[in-house]
Design goal:
The structure is a homodimer of 520-residue chains. In chain A, helix 7 runs parallel beside helix 8. The first copy, chain A, is 24% helix and 23% strand. Chain A has 2 domains: 212 residues, Glutaconate Coenzyme A-transferase; 231 residues, Glutaconate Coenzyme A-transferase (3-Layer(aba) Sandwich). Chain A is of the alpha/beta class and 520 residues long. Chains A, B: Its EC number is 2.8.3.10, 4.1.3.6. Chains A, B: It comes from Brachyspira catarrhinii. Chains A, B: InterPro entries: Citrate_lyase_asu (IPR006472), NagB/RpiA_transferase-like (IPR037171). Chains A, B: Pfam families: CitF (PF04223).
């Protein structure tokens, strides 16, 4: 197994992982700040003549023109989420061409990509890097170790960083775009498949050796609002459909009716207002999901009553947040990925609704990112432990079933990070002594709000003082844990094989945890 | 003197030029297309922590933080043209700090930068690269060879190419911006010094080792419309004033009343309409200047009468072109540099008025540029010769007094390139047997319109056929030349020393001509 090293969270890591490479251990949220000296990635200079044409008659033709071959890396974005058809269109064609051993670097995968399983099994796809993974593929990887190489999980900021630094070298970026002209100027907010902000592929376009735009809406040159300009685009393919934007928002658009979630939301709102954080000019990010929206509703009431206007909301903008913005409760929105197809057109049409790249959103290795400007952020999780370490990638059964998103990025950047979690889910304790896998380190998580009480990370003495000063109820996380365990009992520890099926990178590219194959 | 080589225009060049480097000879407009294999430039990865602050209390502090020292290269943009105060503010501070041997890579210099002469003479500044140079500095360089190194003249597209390819390595980019927030998000269209599109520094920001934003309008975070995002910015300095945007448009905003220019404009319009080029969906670029505007007025009349709507106008957008756009005569504007402070705010506020980077405008070494999409472009010049080679950088006395701009870029890219020139200016022939210096090669120049007749480049047999077919009057350029010379006499040839004071690069980085010191 080779030599082992231990990261600052006490997790033992191999020095080298087959199919991944040399391991840089996680040593703290900003440990590597200004400690490394590396350069931005470089790529072949493109040439252009006026008579050149970029339009191809098929995906096959575009793939052939890029010279894609065995062992190369391709990239995608997942802005169409559960409605995305692009990844499968391209991968099916690659498979037909007999190309093997392809690595996919996607901003994420959704249930629209279950079809990849076939191409993983037949050796077309042998590496995945992503923010999240769910469903059958995730289960097959966790239980049956079907991938040749471990899946690399990256944060949204970490993916931008990895591409910019050349750690990930993309040979061909395939960018699905609902509006595109014949030179490849694109935006995400016009056309029948409009999905809104296109923050992820903005980075791919800058650094990929070849860029293929795939569109179902070829418009007259020049496109009037440009998110990715023609200078980065080599080939363009027109297809029937990019997918179904109605499937972008699934479940997460309505405020929850679940009584436990409503209770948690109310508690969270009380903490935030009680601490005086909801004040003129504050900024925040709330993840998607019903509990988050419920918190937002409470905050809105408070803001209106107290005549408070916030600065910006970042994220993941959904219809509810857009409504708050339109009502004048926030000055601007910073959006990397619109969480609702029905508001896709607002990006670029509402003054102050700003589209941002993944690098601008959350990359720690640039001039500065929006995540570092946040006053507060709320996030949910699959588990949280006594050290406030957060898991959102595996369930307590050890199986991959979630995603990282921008959680570690915004948790590290925002002044206050608040977790909302039910204390028990399906009879399993969500507050644990040790999370199955660490995605967001406890040092960046400040407050835990559960149905059974609010806990403050003891490292945040300043916050504890504020809790005391403002008489906000809170309990020790150990007490909460004991209460939960007294109800659920201590669950059996998951048994693993020695096979590494996933590597979880922190935003700075260090390895924060490893996912092993679950022993059945 | 070392070995000599001859470029495809028959100009003898040294193989190596001291203070410039190895010479790549110009061999044709697209000769180097896909013949070279080089990569995009790379730079040190930046790091950021939430507590970092970019605001500096003075230009001095920002310069110190960048670590600027002797022999480094700094960059500027000239969007404020004759009203720019930023270059002198920075250079004066650098001089006070005792830093020597600085190279300046500016998108251009104007008469606002006459003060540089002092700093050239005292050794603070020893290299310049620019699109244009006029006034005392230009004269001192031409006549007294005061620069340590030859001035490098680049096209707007060529400058973007040189920066992207790493041929120019910018250590510190100083970007004057009329709207900036505390993280460095910038645009050019808001604030008291608003100048409009900021196409040039968009490239500097991407590749410079350090980026300093200089603003006289620090706004609340986040700025609502972002042309250059915070991820590229290291330091920010607030100053009293960036300069005077009223001086951007000087002379060139009103339609000429000069009868010769009006005659040329009328002839040009007749050629363009006669050839059927003014048709639904056509695109064009007209340079600045009164004659250009006069042509536009004729075109407007024709378009309105014939119910024609154009596609886009690129450039250099001025108030007259904006008016045509607002009247619905064009679908969009693509602007790299707004030619009138009074319309600075229109960029980003008028749907279809698109801001573009210098690379998107005219760089031949990217996915594709706007210059390559033009149906026609008009340009003016200081001289044109029997081979249709165009000079716009030196006068017939050999002294530097002009600029290249995007002329060679758009001439190479557009389907039809039309030159408007008076046949005689101040008793000097403008049609010559051989131009003093070549800036735009004749192979990319198609039609010459002068007060004494219209000539067609014999290489464009297709155009000659169209002239015949449409009964458009035209004469042989040799006949025009003979007529002009019979009136002016043959001027004495300029006498030069062996000292090279300027190197004129074609857009692809090859050397198209060399400027020698004039013998007095």
């Amino acid at each position: 197994m080779g030599k082992k090293i231990t990261n600052s969270l006490g997790i033992e890591l191999p020095e080298y992982i087959e199919g991944y490479g040399k391991v840089k251990p996680f040593m703290g949220a900003f440990y590597y700040y200004n400690k490394e000296n590396y350069k931005t990635a470089s790529r072949r200079i493109k040439n252009h003549k006026p008579e050149n044409k970029k339009l191809c008659s098929s995906i096959r033709e575009a793939i052939e023109k890029t010279g894609l071959k065995d062992n190369m890396t391709i990239s995608f974005h997942h802005h169409l989420r559960n409605g995305d058809a692009v990844i499968m269109l391209v991968v099916e064609e690659i498979a037909k061409m007999g190309i093997k051993n392809i690595s996919i670097c996607s901003s994420s995968f959704t249930n629209a990509h279950e079809g990849l399983l076939e191409y993983i099994k037949n050796g077309t796809i042998t590496s995945l890097s992503t923010s999240g993974l769910r469903g059958d593929i995730a289960k097959e990887i966790s239980v049956n170790n079907i991938m040749k190489n471990p899946v690399i999980f990256r944060t949204h900021g970490g993916r931008a960083r990895a591409i910019e630094s050349g750690e990930v070298k993309i040979d061909v970026a395939f960018i699905g775009t609902p509006a595109c002209d014949e030179e490849g100027n694109m935006n995400g907010s016009e056309g029948k498949s409009a999905f809104g902000a296109m923050g992820y592929p903005m980075i791919d376009a800058l650094y990929a050796e070849h860029v293929v735009a795939i569109t179902d809406n070829l418009v007259k040159y020049p496109l009037h609002r440009i998110s990715i300009p023609q200078i980065y685009v080599d080939y363009i393919v027109e297809v029937e459909s990019l997918g179904d934007p109605n499937l972008i928002a699934t479940g997460a658009t309505r405020i929850t009716k679940n009584p436990t979630e409503l209770l948690i939301a109310e508690k969270a709102a009380k903490v935030l207002t009680g601490l005086g954080l909801i004040k003129e000019g504050f900024s925040f990010q709330a993840g998607s999901g019903g509990a988050s929206l419920a918190v937002c509703r409470y905050l809105k009431e408070y803001m209106v009553k107290n005549n408070i206007k916030g600065s910006f909301v970042s994220g993941g903008i959904n219809a509810y947040i857009l409504e708050l913005f339109k009502e004048g409760l926030f000055e601007s929105l910073l959006d990397i990925q619109t969480f609702d197809g029905s508001i896709a057109n607002a990006v670029g049409n509402e003054k102050g609704y700003i589209e941002m790249s993944a690098s601008m959103y959350a990359n720690p290795n640039n001039g500065s990112c929006v995540a570092h400007k946040l006053d507060m952020m709320m996030l949910s999780a699959t588990e949280i432990d006594l050290n406030f370490n957060v898991n959102s990638i595996t369930g307590s059964h050890g199986i991959i079933m979630g995603s990282i998103g921008g959680a570690p990025d915004t948790a590290a950047g925002s002044k206050v990070t608040l977790m909302t979690v039910p204390s028990i889910r399906k009879r399993m304790p969500i507050i644990t002594d040790k999370v199955t896998n660490i995605v967001t380190p406890g040092e960046t998580v400040d407050i835990l709000v559960s149905d059974r009480g609010v806990c403050v990370n003891p490292k945040r003495k300043d916050l504890l003082d504020e809790f005391e000063k403002n008489n906000i109820e809170h309990i020790d996380i150990k007490d909460l844990y004991d209460e939960v365990i007294s109800l659920t009992g201590t669950p059996d520890k998951v048994q693993y094989t020695d096979n590494i099926v996933g590597v979880i990178e922190y935003r700075d590219g260090s390895v924060i945890d490893i996912i092993y194959q679950v022993k059945q």
